[in-house]
Amino acid sequence: MNRLELRGLLDAVCAGTLTPEAAHGRLLQFLRHAPYEDLGFAKVDHHRSIRQGFPEVIFGIGKTPAQIASIAERIVNAGQNLLVTRSTEEAHTAVVAVLPDAVFNPVAGTISLRRSPPPVGKGTVAIAAAGTADLPVAEEAAVCLDMMGNTVDRLYDVGVAGLHRLLAVHDRLTAARVVIVVAGMEGALPSVIGGLVDTPVIAVPTSIGYGASFGGLTALLAMLNSCASGVSVVNIDNGFGAAAIASSINHLP
Amino acid sequence: MNRLELRGLLDAVCAGTLTPEAAHGRLLQFLRHAPYEDLGFAKVDHHRSIRQGFPEVIFGIGKTPAQIASIAERIVNAGQNLLVTRSTEEAHTAVVAVLPDAVFNPVAGTISLRRSPPPVGKGTVAIAAAGTADLPVAEEAAVCLDMMGNTVDRLYDVGVAGLHRLLAVHDRLTAARVVIVVAGMEGALPSVIGGLVDTPVIAVPTSIGYGASFGGLTALLAMLNSCASGVSVVNIDNGFGAAAIASSINHLP
Amino acid sequence: MNRLELRGLLDAVCAGTLTPEAAHGRLLQFLRHAPYEDLGFAKVDHHRSIRQGFPEVIFGIGKTPAQIASIAERIVNAGQNLLVTRSTEEAHTAVVAVLPDAVFNPVAGTISLRRSPPPVGKGTVAIAAAGTADLPVAEEAAVCLDMMGNTVDRLYDVGVAGLHRLLAVHDRLTAARVVIVVAGMEGALPSVIGGLVDTPVIAVPTSIGYGASFGGLTALLAMLNSCASGVSVVNIDNGFGAAAIASSINHLP
Amino acid sequence: MNRLELRGLLDAVCAGTLTPEAAHGRLLQFLRHAPYEDLGFAKVDHHRSIRQGFPEVIFGIGKTPAQIASIAERIVNAGQNLLVTRSTEEAHTAVVAVLPDAVFNPVAGTISLRRSPPPVGKGTVAIAAAGTADLPVAEEAAVCLDMMGNTVDRLYDVGVAGLHRLLAVHDRLTAARVVIVVAGMEGALPSVIGGLVDTPVIAVPTSIGYGASFGGLTALLAMLNSCASGVSVVNIDNGFGAAAIASSINHLP
Amino acid sequence: MNRLELRGLLDAVCAGTLTPEAAHGRLLQFLRHAPYEDLGFAKVDHHRSIRQGFPEVIFGIGKTPAQIASIAERIVNAGQNLLVTRSTEEAHTAVVAVLPDAVFNPVAGTISLRRSPPPVGKGTVAIAAAGTADLPVAEEAAVCLDMMGNTVDRLYDVGVAGLHRLLAVHDRLTAARVVIVVAGMEGALPSVIGGLVDTPVIAVPTSIGYGASFGGLTALLAMLNSCASGVSVVNIDNGFGAAAIASSINHLP
Amino acid sequence: MNRLELRGLLDAVCAGTLTPEAAHGRLLQFLRHAPYEDLGFAKVDHHRSIRQGFPEVIFGIGKTPAQIASIAERIVNAGQNLLVTRSTEEAHTAVVAVLPDAVFNPVAGTISLRRSPPPVGKGTVAIAAAGTADLPVAEEAAVCLDMMGNTVDRLYDVGVAGLHRLLAVHDRLTAARVVIVVAGMEGALPSVIGGLVDTPVIAVPTSIGYGASFGGLTALLAMLNSCASGVSVVNIDNGFGAAAIASSINHLP
Amino acid sequence: MNRLELRGLLDAVCAGTLTPEAAHGRLLQFLRHAPYEDLGFAKVDHHRSIRQGFPEVIFGIGKTPAQIASIAERIVNAGQNLLVTRSTEEAHTAVVAVLPDAVFNPVAGTISLRRSPPPVGKGTVAIAAAGTADLPVAEEAAVCLDMMGNTVDRLYDVGVAGLHRLLAVHDRLTAARVVIVVAGMEGALPSVIGGLVDTPVIAVPTSIGYGASFGGLTALLAMLNSCASGVSVVNIDNGFGAAAIASSINHLP
Amino acid sequence: MNRLELRGLLDAVCAGTLTPEAAHGRLLQFLRHAPYEDLGFAKVDHHRSIRQGFPEVIFGIGKTPAQIASIAERIVNAGQNLLVTRSTEEAHTAVVAVLPDAVFNPVAGTISLRRSPPPVGKGTVAIAAAGTADLPVAEEAAVCLDMMGNTVDRLYDVGVAGLHRLLAVHDRLTAARVVIVVAGMEGALPSVIGGLVDTPVIAVPTSIGYGASFGGLTALLAMLNSCASGVSVVNIDNGFGAAAIASSINHLP
User: Fold this and answer.
1) Residue D180 sits in a domain of what CATH number?
2) Can you list the positions of beta strands (E) in chain H?
3) Closest residue on chain B to E210 (Cα)
4) Is residue G59 part of a domain?
5) What residue in G sits closest to H225 (Cα-Cα)?
6) One domain for residues C105 and C132
7) Which site among A54, A204, A229 would you substitute to test the B interface, given the most B Cβ atoms closer than 10 Å to its Cβ?
8) Model confidence over E217-232: pLDDT tens digits?
9) I want to staple F102 with a disulfide (CB 3.0 to 4.6 A). Which of B17, F113, F180, H39 is the partner?
10) Chains adjacent to C (≥3 CB pairs closer than 8 angstroms)
């Protein structure tokens, strides 16, 4: 149960379309595992969609396929939407065994299953990516944003060394409510975009590069030192993290 | 001239309280130095408050007091509000020689002068600081937020080693539209706050600490690796940067 | 022979249940290889359980399965309990060829064989782990603590972004004599726990994370800069090291 | 009021030497500022000596002398012992203006004032320091340990390049309940001492050295990689931190 | 004597305006100290202007004013032009005592004295600087280029966060034969300029910035990872180095 | 169509050997996809050979074979020469399926296909490599230089520890218009060569080495700190980047 | 031909046991490829054994088996002893195809073939290794020392955490003319040994360890900061390098 | 008393020029403070000149002038030669108050006083320094070598960018028994010299440089990765350390 459903339930009681008894029953069922369910190796947080606006997202790194499937099952059984990031084909195989409708996105590395529509954000979130190699991170952000109820506008291969490609999408950048900028190598794109728009910019460094890119450290440092104001940064390759804060901004009333 | 004044001028013409001729004259005066004024050592951007929502902010590091005073004079002469960050008593002395009303805040390291009210943000921006030593950075953010038209709620000395102090301000944190979290040392505060609220969290690492804090690098890295979602990060000690993106979010319609 | 057995032998002589001759013989046998046995590629330390409270532990990294099996055989032949850390299925295969009762724990990466009960610690050692992915390190600590004679209380998936999960185990944390805290990513958990308890806290950073977690460096640095007092730190992923000092503390009279 | 005084008060009531009314009054006075006192720039924690065994210690870095004096006054007024670390002559001047008996130790950089005896630890804490230049850190630890109720044994200038100097104090090392080892440069001393004793070893790297010592980073890394078991590490130059955990261990029942 | 003068001397002999005897004498005088003059603390290279196109440049860091003055005197006495970089007012005072015409440029940190015109480069060298604070490095490059016989075009305060300021000087960038790009913070300017021009771009990172700029390391890394081709990089703040290679390129026939 | 062909076309019209109609048709065909073609995952830049002197080069890292083949096809269809760097046998297989004449160089890691002769550079570009293990990087530079229209002189295995091998090729070094110097380990070769020649030196650090070579970081840092003037540096293993700037210099009129 | 053979040849001529004609012929044959032989990808240095006391050693990293075999063949054909380091079984297979007597040492990673006895060193070189896992590096040093004509004394598994094992070999350490000390993890062994002996100590850090050992960086830094005098350091895992300087010292007259 | 004097005393007894009684008395006086004298803050090692060939050297960093003077007095009173490194004018003032003949060398930063001639080394130690700015480190080495009984040959300003200056001193390099090479910036000199000589080379990186020299780290890393064999390295700026091992080598029989 998310915030939207909670509000709908109360509205229905208020409108007389749902008896207090029925509402009571549905609330009791939701609260059965409050505030979390302990699997021994994990404590599944069933109230997060109430507290934080979207359900617990399973971070796949360091978890076995069996652990992922087990947590995924509990989340979906509690009526939540499922989102697993940094996942693999193997994990997907384990998940579909218990949740046959779960979908794997091999570019984004996500497993997802939507049970109910998430609350809808106010505007569009633009995702600008510097190069073709940055797509996996950009797509992780895009899938997460979609699952969190946001409209996404993809602007790919608009790196600063070809300014004409970037300037050609200027209108779409300024039309967005939030802009996520994904770039590796020297990480210059957020500074240029930050100077073009007045909306919040969330910069995502990627590990794309070689030699002195140090696995994305160079792009990360460059973005933190951006001379443009209105830019903040998430971890290297953290498409999910960028989506989370962008969605949080996009859902502000 | 900022966006608010521009709108006010057009409204006045529409309402008949300002003749088109007078409005024309005031617009011409503003556009005289478009789009920037070249001082040789600097190009002062007079249209930024139109493009980006607040006027050019002078970053004091690496500029001589004379350079700062000269740029400040041009900005104020163009009818803009003045804000200088990372500034010193010496720079203030140079600025007041040309702008006698300019105010120096020694804790925040800012020089400011307000000529017209900035556009007002929708909600409150909370600033949570982990320790007393983080105050200069927190106050830089607070002064900048105020100059940009935001209401600020200060929550100081609420570091994670004394959870009861943090939990005592839980209500004020959840009441804010954006939360800026300022912390040095191990930089754990954004993770804990990020788990308590569902609003955007802007984390600012500070250079407070010693030994393996490496001038704030440890806090920076910790914040980038936050296990809480909805957290993004700006540069070490970058109170201004946090204010800029927080204000940008707070001014979203 | 460990300290407990040495004391028992002397007590038996004192009580008249063991003749001095028999005791002499057993001591001679133990001292036959004093103070260490030289295998060419290794010098096996047979007196460590007397000097340091537990026998030599074989660190598996960089040793061939044959070398591990050879050292393990000498240790067990000398009447000691066997503990191999950072081990593999291959090494286990080599060890069971000479020590059929040796047990492999694939999560902890340990091979162990208990020949005699170790001296019992005074209290409980709690192991708090931030996330599911930290379990291998936590379990290495748990197995080592058990082999060293300690009662272990496991508190898993209690990371700081879900404070309610941590506060739910507050009583078990304060009931422990020593607390080991295992966390990757931003490594914030020891600071929060350090503020909740007054017992010694041993922090273990893990290599869990990606991007700017730099293989656990971020968690390590964060823990070293903890604003909570009473926290000390061991190497990244060093579950054994945490167990060793925790057991040393737990065995203080 | 610390734990010892709290127990004494209850014992006195039990023994009839204190009326419940008088005890009630003294408890009320202590609880007046519960759980902390807010000075705006700081929240002074008056209950820490109950929760954590010793009162709040003021960390001097980043605080102005006036801030330190103000916090110090509140702590002493609440009946607590005063301890300020990383302090200066200037801060001491500000403190003595309000607390004339406060003592400054220029080598340790501490300001202290004892109002009531702290709970006494069970054994001795030995402090081994590698070289003369490590004394400021060793003395910070020594002053803190003394304020926390521990007996200290100083073993200075016992670096590993002159083993005979270290072996000459072997008996004093093994007699201690906890050993703090302070060393800069290559940080080898904890490994050698860790191999000689079976008590917990708390290693403190110092910033002593030059060139590739990188401000103590080399010593820190070396200590974290110690091949001796039973060694844990605190931050560079963190004499207070070592004292805090050593005292915590030494006060275990 | 530089290459130009050497050629002029031979031309004069060929044209009959200089007798072979006079030419011989002047060559002998020049070759008197060949190939270098040993001052004990330094070996002054008098043939460098022949070998490498410009005379030895004195790098001021780590040299005493007396050493600088002594080397400067030898260079000028040998008929060379004088250029000292990374210099101070104190060094200038020592130099003018022996070379009264030597000129100090406090912004560039250079001491110079021109005795004969250097060979003239084929085109213009443009110097683009991102911000006002980058001027000292840009001016070091400008002074050195001038001394080496190049025409310089200064394009200052054209950082990427205000693209319109950069695009306004597009024509001057494309008109240059070589472009030096000076930038601190995130070091993005060379990538954008590298995408706009097809001439060689020499990038100079500056130490301008704070926090995670790490004294220019971030800008350096960003420039090394530039996604634009045709960009190479010199050391942080190395205005001289950029000038040296730019001049070398500009003097190619 | 590159610059040479564009000039040729205009010359033909001028000479009357091509009718304006025919020229018009060929220009229209070339301009059909102006200024870039959007493949969704990439925006192929068809005008780069006009703007920057050589066509877009496909950087293979992070692109799938299918993506590389797709971009390659568009480039060749637009009449450009094809160059893919950091490529693999797998990518080549995908490319030859659509471009059967494409050639793979396994040492250089390049795929190339020449459709028309590139503009010819003025002189020779020498490539000096320190050791046999540096050849892949040197050959990447050589292939790129050749594709860009430059004559290459290879000087391999001339590391500084055997000066006689380097001095034996002194004449070939001084005969070049630009020198690319490729070295790993301590990266000393550019400093020695920089002292021997007066032409521009482009230094390429390689990741050859082990231990404290840190994947080429040591060589990179050494080259950036070269005491020789006239040396600039590109990223670790960036043979293409060195070729790009060297070719840019070599094509200066 | 090495120095010993050169001297022997001259002695034989002097003694009349070799005619000048025969000696002339043998010298001519040796000098045929002077000073090096160019294979295109490598320049084989045939005079190094004369110049530097031992023939060129082939460093295997980054060379193909075919390249190694080709260089090896030239070296042996020129009458030199063969030594390849950092080699593999594959390279050995390629070498034995042309040099059937070449021997592979899988622990040391060396291929060697002795054609003539090397000059004999004056004393013994001791190799002390801290742990079993350091053996590959220690054995690389041992094989190289043997090939260079030195007597080796192996002292393995004598790490500082078990001082009694080290003190048991004190006599053998002091009997050596040079001591090579091999250690990973905290790298403390050279400091302790450096305090026990007055002979030159060559420290070799190894990449043994995990977490904050950073591939041997910690051991390297520790050794560079050794508080013992008379210690110098070579690269991580550089057993060959330690052998080279130790042999150079051991061959001093 | 050093080794030479000890040997002389025994020779005198053997020759009958000293009575056993007198010799006994002098030995007793020397052994009075065996093996070290404890000053509380330091333990002065009076037997080091017997054990290690030269007396304890006082490392000045981190010691107060009073501590230095106090240790110096004990050393000289015990009949040893005095050597203080990393010292200052202030420390010298404190030392001359108790030892009026002590000499300060401001370039080398040493205080010294010779009471008796040290044992003489077999050959010459050459010190090659790359630039004028490296002289303080080179002179520290020179003073230490002289105090330890070595003949020194200074070869200054012979950096690799001017090979002719280095080749001009080739004979003096090859004539030395050991070569110390001092260089900052890119640290290339040891590699070039290591290829020219067959004697041991001790490389000393200096902190000379700026930007990416990182306080000597670049030179240090370069030297550790030297492609020349026979090179080992000491800490940045460690002239004393280089002298210690060079003297140790030079005193080998």
Assistant:
1) 3.40.50.1970
2) 36-38, 43-45, 58-59, 82-85, 103-105, 110-113, 124-129, 151-156, 178-183, 201-205, 231-233
3) B236
4) yes
5) G235
6) no
7) A229
8) 999 999 999 999 899 9
9) F113
10) A, B, D, G
